[in-house]
């Protein structure tokens, strides 16, 4: 059973005009649970279920847990999702509405993760991590297969990086199909820049805390594979401010009529802020989406997130 959809590939006239360069969008915001996560989570959960693991225990900022809850409901498995206090109440309710048990533990994802690992030690359980697992990367890499099927090879790809699962999937896909010359722009917000910290140090670095509103990018340390890929694949780590990420969400909502989280806004801001040098004939932005956003929450960020002086 394949749990994700092939997502639309759009030629964005509005964003192309802003960038002065053709911009294409891979619309993973339109996946069943509102983010790309179900690609990898679907594959990981399916394999776990086939191994006889009938209880998935996941730690998540929100979207991975939402995807695991969805996968559990489709497969007929029990699901427990451990989220930190920063995951909004409406997001906890969305996860619970899929039939999962939601537990709130700790102030950041890392703390919730400790609890999830301990719970998953029980027999018959599957620990379902949000970004650090080869099945997740393999599942996320289907995004690149869809580009190949559409006969569309971008000049470069822009992706948001939290713990690095999406990034690993995209690079794995590019390497597998032989597109080793397609560089990746890895986007983070300034208060969640754990990939940039590790990449520039050349080793895994744990950043002290997450100060960004883009809580879905809030992994204090990226997975080791993300660092490994950054040594073999052309990758540039870039950061935008929270303000730029929120502005990107607002503009994207007006122009493409789709609500996304600041985590995804970080990738879109690469275009709005002209944060990268266009390479080749066009650039693909992975619109990773995110369900932890409402119109009123976006309006609140608009009012509260500091503007540049
Ligand atoms: N979110 C993870 C980690 O949170 C989660 O538990 O849902 N865009 C969106 C909308 C996301 O939800 C995430 C990850 C990312 C981007 C970054 O993906 P990653 O972690 O694979 O780099 C703390």
Q: What does this entry look like structurally?
A:
- This protein is α/β, with parallel strands linked by helices.
- The chain folds into two domains: 9-36 and 135-304, 3-Layer(aba) Sandwich (Rossmann fold); 38-130, Rossmann fold (3-Layer(aba) Sandwich), CATH 3.40.50.
- It has helices at 13-19, 38-50, 63-75, 89-97, 109-119, 134-140, 142-149, 165-176, 194-201, 224-232, 242-256, 262-272, 295-304, and strands spanning 9-12, 23-26, 55-59, 78-83, 101-104, 125-128, 156-160, 184-189, 235-240, 283-286.
- It has a six-stranded mixed beta sheet with strand order 1-2-10-7-8-9. Strands 5-4-3-6 form a four-stranded parallel beta sheet, sandwiched between helices.
- β3 (55-59), α3 (63-75) and β4 form a beta-alpha-beta unit.
- The model has no long low-confidence stretch (mean pLDDT 97).
- Bound molecules: ligand PLV.
- Ligand PLV is lined by residues 35, 37, 60-64, 109, 130-131, 160-167, 216-219, 261, 263-264, 288-290.
Give the arrangement of secondary structure elements:
Elements lengths: L8 E4 H7 L3 E4 L11 H13 L4 E5 L3 H13 L2 E6 L5 H9 L3 E4 L4 H11 L5 E4 L5 H7 L1 H8 L6 E5 L4 H12 L7 E6 L4 H8 L22 H9 L2 E6 L1 H15 L5 H11 L10 E4 L8 H10 L5
Helix pairs in contact: 2-3, 2-6, 3-4, 6-8, 7-8, 11-12
Bound molecules: ligand PLV.
